[in-house]
């Protein structure tokens, strides 16, 4: 192959020419491989397994598989799946690429934001102690392991940090925060969509005064797109975003962004290294490439366009419902997490005799199946979203083109069917 003359190469036909310089190095390019083999017909395993997909009028909820990947991300994953690579080389290269694009010192693709919380916390424990990697999380007695957090920032992801054998030290006021630092403090944790009196700026300033790194969990907090660098530039030493929510990468990915030394320490605590707290949170080549491609895709999007598209869908659905007695609609944008327009529908249950929970059930049972936002009929499903027994929340963000009309018609049918005569 290497000694093949240009003329001979040309005689070998379009195949070899297509493979280009890769063919000269002896390894056919992926495109050439693809065109050489006929692609097998894909089996629809959802159908084969009897699992029915749905129209996602909920949003990026984990149990609902969060989001779907745009075509160009899926295509990149498919290509990456075809050839073996060295995972450390891929982690190095993807980390450097992402850090540059996301304007921070260093970056790591993790197995989700929750995994980033684990290995990021492990990194802070690692920096504060000698040789702790093997000891995390069970042999912590000789290790510094205190993490300071605002009381209103304790949340459903505490366990990710606790996987590293840490102890939470809760504070409520800036004064308490100032006094909470001890010899054993390794990290100050901030939940970006949490409620508390201490600002992000104060959180960072005080932590740094004590030489302690601070972590911001912003998992669900794009858009705006600029959040991808806002918090690292504000001084947070570590920031995580979920890869499978707004970024629309593979669901089992996350971004850990931040300071070079901490990202290096996080990597030491992570797969592919055995005997680490992160070894079970493996990220595969397909996922690493998928998240890089998703970041490339996401940086080409536009906040105003995302917002306008969501409003247009919400308006279209609202218009279909405005003739139903007592129904009121409103567009609602949560302040921080899931910061996109949602459609809120309320009605008088004396006239429209159905609970939100029943509407949700009927939408789920219909054809096609439709999943409404889990705030529907009950408690808020994510930070800042309203809910209630007679409230329907339509998450329009993840709808595919045309699905807004399907949701609108079915909602009208269900609500109209419940009108008291
Ligand atoms: C979704 C979420 C996570 C977990 O993200 P994954 O990528 O699914 O691991 C962590 N923290 C917050 C605040 C989240 O919303």
Summary?
This protein has 421 residues and is α/β, with parallel strands linked by helices.
CATH topology-level name of the largest domain: Aspartate Aminotransferase, domain 2
Fraction of residues in H or I helices: 25-40%
| Residue runs with pLDDT of under 50 for 5 or more positions | 1-23
Shape: globular
What is the overall number of helices? 16
What gyration radius follows from the Cα positions, in whole Å? 25 Å
- What's the total number of strands? 12
Count of discrete structural domains: 2
Question: Going by CATH, what is the homologous superfamily of the largest domain?
Answer: Type I PLP-dependent aspartate aminotransferase-like (Major domain)
Spatial gap, N to C terminus = 81 Å
What is the top-level CATH class of the largest domain? Alpha Beta
Q: Beta-strand percentage? A: 5-15%
What does this structure look like?
The chain is an alpha/beta fold and 421 residues long. It has 2 domains: 84-298, Type I PLP-dependent aspartate aminotransferase-like (Major domain) (Aspartate Aminotransferase, domain 2, 3-Layer(aba) Sandwich); 303-416, Aspartate Aminotransferase, domain 1. It is built from 16 helices and 12 strands. The chain has helices at residues 6-11, 14-24, 30-36, 45-49, 71-80, 87-101, 113-128, 158-162, 174-180, 200-209, 227-233, 260-268, 285-299, 303-321, 356-365, 403-416, and strands at 55-57, 106-110, 146-150, 167-171, 185-191, 214-217, 238-242, 254-258, 328-332, 342-346, 370-372, 391-394. A 7-stranded mixed sheet has the order 2-8-7-6-5-3-4, with helices on both faces. Strand 5 (185-191), helix 10 and strand 6 (214-217) form a beta-alpha-beta unit. Helix 2 (14-24) packs antiparallel against helix 3. The termini are far apart. Mean pLDDT is 92; it is low at 1-23.
